[in-house]
Amino acid sequence: MQKKKILTAALASTLAASVIAGAGTFAYLQANTGTITNKFGKNSDAALDITLTETDVTLDAEGNGEKIYEIKQNQTDDKDPTVTVTNNIDVFTFVEISDKTTLDNNKIVNYLIADGWTKMTDELAGYELVNDEVTDIYYRIVASDAAVKEFPVIKDNEISYAANVTDKKIDNDDVTIAFQAFCIDKSPFVEEGKQEIVSAADAYKAIPRVIAYEPEANFTTAPIDENTVAVTGYTGTSTEVNIPRTIGGKNVVEIANNAFENNETVTKVTVPSTVTEIGVAAFQSTPHLKEVRLSKNLTELSDTAFFNSGLTGIKIPAGVESITDSCFEGNKALKTVTFSKGLKTLGENVFKGCTSLKMVVLPDGLVSLGGSTFDGCTGLESVTIPASCTNFVDNDIFKNCDLTKLTIRGAAGSAAETYANDNGINFEAI
Asked: Cα(54)–Cα(106) distance, rounded to whole angstroms?
């Protein structure tokens, strides 16, 4: 059997230049690194003849960067993400790991955490994190010391790559590992007059890395069963609303039909990960709503859920399989839509009248585009349609768009190319 090579951008050699406790002037004296994200590339059909190469991490102005390797299947390589700490006070040091390297329920990247780190993910299970892509959180206590101290994150600096990955396609955006580190003064989290730690989790939340919920009293609810409720309305006056995971001791699993409809105050909403359903017209006619952080456990976005809202951008979670009719219709300020693999269908009029949309990249796995999906998107210049999309409901998908400046991008010979040719739209093979 012919072997294949795998190109990856893998773990960074240094998590950041350093974490210097005492450099910040936040609530409890804190500091943090940027995020280094490691992207995994698509498989190649070339024979296996690869030299491991390593490039330096180039951090941008916000401290973010990445590192690139070429790797062999089923091999173990040296990888050395390291946290460097210089501190003149005792500190908690945290590492967040956002590990999205599972493909078809199989781990394709394997590693152990280095000694000295304590896992604290379970302590935060009842909270919504600022970064909902974080999968694990570790901490250690670093005593005050004038010396520069380095702590490896991965045990023995070894990371292994599974053999089964060679028969799969790996998407750069969906299969990644990312690291970020934080320090915070230990002293506020030690019981007065003693040396016992009150809670490392409290220190982590004080950075802050945990979302502060809106008071439960500001929501109306309806019971679904004895353990769950739906939010039916919002009575508060906040502009930024973080919906609680629980209200009255019951899990919030649904944002009901019309729950926020006609709200003219809210500008940002965080939907907690307990929510699996957003109802019809839940956020309809919310002109000042610019940003929504959706639950990662949603499977569908309902009819007119964000009809005529003020959204400027939206990220669709990976679990969403369908976006139904007119979900984002009339969002004239909507400029960016970020899809994840998992989406199968777009309904009718989903982006109708979204005049600020210029470029849309539809995800691999999409199978159907509904009628008039992009009707009236007059600013639209480029739509990338995957080869998996073979069902075009009608010839009005790009009705009332400026076809003179629109390009459909897709695979040569695909249904997308046929649709473009049949409707007089420029096509670009990719």
From this structure: 26
CB within 8 Å of 204: residues ≥ 6 apart? 92, 94, 120, 124, 137, 139, 182, 184, 210
The answer to whether 127 and 215 are in contact (CB under 8 A) is no
Is residue 376 a contact partner of residue 406, using CB atoms and an 8 Å limit? Answer: no
Name the DSSP letter for residue 130. Answer: S
**Does pTM top 0.85 for this prediction?**
no
Pair of tokens at residue 186:
């230990």
Lookup: tokens for 125: 């299970």
Mean pLDDT by groups of 10 residues along the chain of 430 residues = 25 42 52 64 32 42 61 61 80 89 74 94 88 92 83 83 60 71 84 72 90 95 96 97 96 97 97 96 97 94 96 94 96 94 93 96 93 96 95 93 95 94 93
Nearest to 390 by CA among 417, 408, 372: 417
Pair type for strands 426-429 and 407-410: parallel
In 3D space, the residue among 81, 71, 78, 69 whose CA is nearest the CA of residue 165 turns out to be: 71
Q: Is the peptide bond before 317 cis (omega within 30 degrees of 0)?
A: no
Name the one residue in this structure whose structure tokens are 């809670």.
199
What DSSP state is assigned to residue 259? T
Region at 239 (left for phi over 0; alpha for psi -120 to 50; beta for the rest): alpha
Q: Which residues pair with 179 in a beta bridge?
A: 36, 97
Amino acid (one-letter) located at 35: T
DSSP 206: I
Tokens of 118: 């304590």
| Half-sphere exposure for 164 (CA within 13 Å, toward CB) | 10
* HSE of 339, CA atoms in CB hemisphere, 13 A: 23
In angstroms, rounded to a whole number, what is the distance separating the alpha carbons of residues 366 and 340?
Answer: 10
Residues in the chain: 430
CA–CA separation, 69 and 219 (whole Å): 49
- Rounded CA-CA distance 183/90 in Å is 10
Q: How many CB atoms lie within 10 A of CB 384?
A: 16
Neighbouring CB atoms inside 10 A of 256's CB total 21
